[in-house]
Amino acid sequence: QKEVEQDPGPLSVPEGAIVSLNCTYSNSAFQYFMWYRQYSRKGPELLMYTYSSGNKEDGRFTAQVDKSSKYISLFIRDSQPSDSATYLCAMSARGDYKLSFGAGTTVTVRA
Amino acid sequence: GAVVSQHPSRVICKSGTSVKIECRSLDFQATTMFWYRQFPKQSLMLMATSNEGSKATYEQGVEKDKFLINHASLTLSTLTVTSAHPEDSSFYICSAHSGGAGMYEQYFGPGTRLTVT
Question: What's residue B31's pLDDT?
Answer without folding.
Answer: 86
